Amino acid sequence: MFSGHCLCKSVSFKFQYDPMMHFKCHCSTCQIVFGNSLNALAMPEEELNIKGELRRYSIIGGSGNQLHYNFCSKCGVLIYNKPELLEGMIYIPAGLMKEQIEFSPTVELWSSNRPYGIEKTPTTIADFEDNGTVERLVELLENLEQRE
């Protein structure tokens, strides 16, 4: 069982299975929101059990679809974001799990927008100049690794 929390510990979460994918997103939105590229863990939303009050902020992402940021209502730490592009999937910032999961990205999105000084990760298997496509990402999610 994996578990984590926000800075003020008002929101806690847990999930049982390994994330389906570790990835980096270099889109301009992530660079604004996170001050750099996003390092994230992808998993089905139904597997995440959350306790505490979340607030949501939604935008139109680089795919043209909505992206929902869900964060602690007290300290503002992002717990997960949910892209409508991949229905049912969520992205948890890898830093929330740094003591339990070694971040090893296998996919990089928007690599054409990778910040200067950030090199392609050696563990990357698939590198997309854009957001990939739903079909390619779903195929990767299904075939990249066996979940425990």
Major sheet: size, sense and barrel closure?
5 strands, mixed
Quick one: CATH class? Mainly Beta
The strand order across the widest sheet is 9-4-3-10-11
Q: Structural class from helices and strands?
A: mainly beta
Q: Whole-number radius of gyration?
A: 14 Å
Number of domains: 1
Query: In DSSP terms, counting alpha (H) and pi (I) runs of 4 or more, how many helices?
Result: 2
Range of strand content: 35-45%
Order of helices and strands: EEEHEEEEEEEEH
Count of β-strands: 11
CATH topology: Metal Binding Protein, Guanine Nucleotide Exchange Factor, Chain A
Query: What is the residue-averaged pLDDT?
Result: 86
CATH architecture: Beta Complex
Question: Any idea what the shape is?
Answer: globular
Distance between the termini: 10 Å
Low-confidence spans: pLDDT under 50, at least 5 residues? none
Q: What is the helix content?
A: 10-25%
What would your notes on this structure say?
The chain is mainly β. It has one domain: Beta Complex (Metal Binding Protein, Guanine Nucleotide Exchange Factor, Chain A), CATH 2.170.150. Helices cover 11% and strands 36% of the residues. The chain contains 2 helices and 11 strands; from the N terminus they run E-E-E-H-E-E-E-E-E-E-E-E-H. A 5-stranded mixed sheet has the order 9-4-3-10-11. The chain has a 3-stranded antiparallel sheet with strand order 1-2-5, with no helix packed on it. A 3-stranded antiparallel sheet has the order 6-7-8, with no helix packed on it. Strand 7 and strand 8 form a beta hairpin. 28% of the residues are buried. The model has no long low-confidence stretch (mean pLDDT 86).
